[in-house]
Amino acid sequence: MNPVSAPPARVRPPRRHAAWLWRGCLGLTLIALVAWAAHAFSLQRGLQRLHAAAQQRLEVEAARLDGQLSRFEYLPSVLETSPEVLRLLAAPGDGAAREAVNRYLKALNAIAGADNLYVLDRAGTALAAADFELPSSPVGQDLSYRPYMRDALAKGRGTFYGMGITSARAGYYLSYALPARGETRGVATVKVNLQTVEQEWRDLPGDLLMLDERQVVILASRDAWKYHPLAPLSADARAEAAQSRRYGSADLAPLDWQMGERFDKRASRLLIDARPYLMSEHPVNRGQWRLLLLDDEAHARTTARSTAISAGLGTAVLLLAATVAAQRRRAIRQRLASREALQAAHDSLEIKVQERTAELRAAQNDLVHAGKLAVLGQMSAGMVHELNQPLAALHTLSDNAALLIDRGRLDDAKGNLARIGRLVNRLGRLTSQLKVFAHKSNEPIGSASVHRAINEALALVAARLRDGGIEVSVQVEPASLAVAGDETRLEQVLGNVLGNAIDALDGAEVRRIDILATARGNTCQIVVGNSGPCIDPEILPRLFEPFVTSKPPGKGLGLGLMISSHIVRGYGGSLRASNLAPSGAQFTIELPRAAVSEALA
């Protein structure tokens, strides 16, 4: 018997073939990406050069157009000094005066070179014109519906671009009110013909067109584009155009252009009949119109394709050379470097782990130490800041009490002593309230009289106000206004804000502080404004952060406003600062209102 042979083993493709396939796909992808990037870069550069050249041409054409439009602006105002024109406006039915004005306008326009020059009465009827001998003359026509007529009567002058009613020629109209003895008697109008400019555009490279304020083409190197808007007009715009006969009998159908991406502030890309163009623009006529130049992108695209092909071929050659060199080096390196690289990597990793562990421990110790110092410094600085004003007030009140006793004013001295007692109690409460920086208090929120808190805060800084010659205005509406909170803390906040206001008035010509407290629904708003300089805009957003201050060194720690903001937020309110115009600053405190009965209890 013949021995039974074993079935042949399945042949698997070697992994090397899969690696080569993956590298081949990666190489083709890289070639495609380089070609695409080269095409995009070359096209972008080509369009930039095209746009730069277009802007230069547009600036020349825009200057020429502006000069053409402005060269006749003086002409209507010349008629204001003409006795014949004023005589005709005073007596429109005088045939001799009409004939004299017609001859005068014809002679004047022969020198100026405008398309037409005519005079209208206040009702809009043309009385005389430079072309009075022509059948297309506007003499006797009612032109009151023209916008330039209404603008001249209302504003003294007007401008308008539109189709001529009698001549059927489009033009740019300049109108000027003609006053006599303080009263407008009529309107002088000059018509400027821009068709010669339009004819010259057809000999220039690219396509030029002009858009009016409604984005309707009024001048173009292609007649098919004239009197068509870039986008559909609204019903109101179409009604106004029909009423003023701005575009004659044109149907105002929008151009069938496909607008593309914005290339620059003054350039866009678009498709016209599936052909790409770069559209550059420039403002004309004091920004009322836009002059557009369309350049075909065909040359830039051809250059970009050639650049992309060259870049792709160059990348393919480089990849092939790199592949051959890599294969030669890999065979030599692979056996000798594997074990050494593995051992070196292991040793390096061990060293790095030990170094990083030591660095982390040192950084942790430094952070803990720095945190302790920061907390200690902030607590001690806050204590000094908050106890400074009450201690200064105690010193002032005790001195005043001694003087009052010497003078025999015992009642006033008793009042000062009572106030000293309240300040001592306040110092005790301030020291017990330091826990507010660590956690919220569980004590119930009471109510505080706004009027009383303002008076107490002003008493604390009375000496500084008197020494600085500062005028203070206080207005509380209603007088029984109260907020939900502790009166001592409200006095503390107001004292800090007033202290900052007094510091800001140092050296100011006008020294005034205005305090206005009003009720706004369920909220009380207290605004403290001063007439000093504005707060530095760089400091204003960080004004309520710790140790941020605009005062010179030694004048403040930058903690008062931070503490005040913390107190106000604890009662569900807010504290913000803003600058006044032209100078001055104000702080606005908003707190929830409390019932009147609670505040007076």
Overview of the molecule:
- The chain has 601 residues and is an alpha+beta fold.
- Among the domains are: 74-193, PAS domain (Beta-Lactamase, 2-Layer Sandwich), CATH 3.30.450; 445-600, Heat Shock Protein 90 (2-Layer Sandwich).
- The chain has 14 helices and 18 strands.
- The chain has a 6-stranded antiparallel sheet. A 5-stranded antiparallel sheet has the order 2-1-5-4-3.
- A hairpin with a 2-residue loop joins strand 9 (267-272) and strand 10 (275-284).
- The longest helix has 109 residues, at 298-406.
CATH architecture annotation of the domain at 445-600: 2-Layer Sandwich
Question: What is the number of beta strands?
Answer: 18
The CATH homologous superfamily name of the domain at 445-600 equals Histidine kinase-like ATPase, C-terminal domain
Shape: flat
Low-confidence regions:
367-376, 435-441, 597-601
The major pleated sheet works out as: 6 strands, antiparallel
List the strand order in the largest sheet.
7-6-11-10-9-8
Average pLDDT, rounded to a whole number, is 82
